[in-house]
TrEMBL record:
It catalyses: a cardiolipin + H2O = a 1,2-diacyl-sn-glycero-3-phospho-(1'-sn-glycerol) + a 1,2-diacyl-sn-glycero-3-phosphate + H(+). This is Mitochondrial cardiolipin hydrolase. Residues 155-182 form the PLD phosphodiesterase domain. The lineage of its organism: Eukaryota, Metazoa, Chordata, Craniata, Vertebrata. It comes from Orycteropus afer afer. GO terms for cellular component: mitochondrial outer membrane. It is a single-pass membrane protein.
Length: 228
């Protein structure tokens, strides 16, 4: 068998080099089409960290862990990752819609995040419990003042859900009330997941409650009996 000429050997070498150069792009394309759904579990109480870098008006790109470095921030709080910062980043990834179904909501950081999404043009809707929305420190009044739609129950039972749906794709749910007490002191859990079936079920529940709590259906005064 005749040995390969230097021209053929050179051609083979060039072809191999080109193949190796394009291999990373091909692999990214293949894996990109099979991206693993998001699964994340957060446990509280959360370490107290600075979240100012996350709560800025300007960035519209999805906030990353590096944004928690808070370059130039003069506060005395430690800078870095925490359960709260990860929850904030999951919320601030919203680009189209955010549905919130919360029993109690008094965390100023989470309240600022929701208002920030509203300012960016995200459609935000909130369902809450009537007995807790007027308590001292509640964020509900501030959300309403900012122009965010809020509806509440009008019955004896608690609206005790604690979940959020981001862009109708990501479900955030667990035991956590969105209060400073729960975030900093309680043993709580939050599950963040991309699952089409679970998101659909929670979205259906939200829409059912949203319609049930429509204020046009409220009865503020008993109806008088019609005269005979």
């Amino acid at each position: 068998m005749k040995p390969l000429s230097w021209q053929v050997a050179a051609a083979v070498a060039v072809g191999l080099a080109l193949a190796l150069e394009t291999l990373p792009q091909v692999l990214r394309w293949l894996w990109g089409g099979r991206r693993r759904p998001r699964r994340e579990v957060l446990f509280f109480p959360s370490q107290v960290t600075c979240t100012e870098a996350l709560l800025q008006q300007a960035p519209r790109a999805e906030p990353s862990a590096s944004t928690t470095s808070s370059a130039g921030c003069l506060c005395s709080l430690p800078h870095g990752e925490s359960a709260l910062s990860r929850l904030l980043r999951a919320l601030l990834a919203a680009r189209v819609s955010l549905e919130l179904c919360l029993f109690a909501f008094s965390s100023p950081q989470l309240g600022r995040a929701v208002q920030l999404l509203h300012q960016r043009g995200v459609r935000v809707r909130v369902v809450t419990d009537c007995d807790y929305m007027a308590l001292n420190g509640s964020q509900i009044g501030l959300l309403r003042k900012a122009g965010i739609q809020v509806r509440h129950d009008q019955d004896l039972g608690y609206m005790h859900h604690k979940f959020a749906i981001v862009d109708k794709k990501v479900l955030i749910t667990g035991s956590l009330n969105w209060t400073t007490q729960a975030i900093q002191n309680n043993r709580e859990n939050v599950l963040i997941m991309e699952d089409e079936e679970y998101v659909r079920l929670f979205l259906e529940e939200f829409e059912r409650i949203w319609e049930e709590f429509n204020p046009t259906k409220y009865t503020f005064f008993p109806q008088e009996k019609k005269s005979q």
